Fold:
Amino acid sequence: MGKQDSVSERRQETRYQVAVPIGTDDCFHNNDALFNLSMCGACFKTPEPYEAGDMILLNFFFTSESLCMPARIRWKKTADAQAYTYGVEFFCSHSTFFISQRRQFMEHLSTLIVSHAAEPIPE
Structure:
């Protein structure tokens, strides 16, 4: 089994291409880019230098509100001379705040999917 197979097998939810501005807990960059998003994780580009295993807060700036999701960096690739591409898995926190954030995040993503503003990415 190759590396690509193991990532696909780990994936628990369908990924969607969505146009939602993002930022990390370290800062917001105008060139941060969200490539895809699921209920369990995301793939994005930022100039912030993280390593696999790092815990971060990923901020999503939806039209009506911003939400932050705790996430663990699962993999990292160099995107270009000034940025990295990361795959993250959302971390299940037991704090009341993050439980509320996750519930609201899932509602926003569900709304995007239903309104067809999100395209599923084929496996």
Remarks:
- The beta strands are 16-17, 22-24, 33-37, 41-46, 55-61, 66-80, 83-90, 119-120.
- The domain at 18-120 is CATH 2.40.10.220 (Thrombin, subunit H).
- Residues 1-5 have pLDDT under 50 and may be disordered.
- The first strand starts at residue 16 and ends at 17.
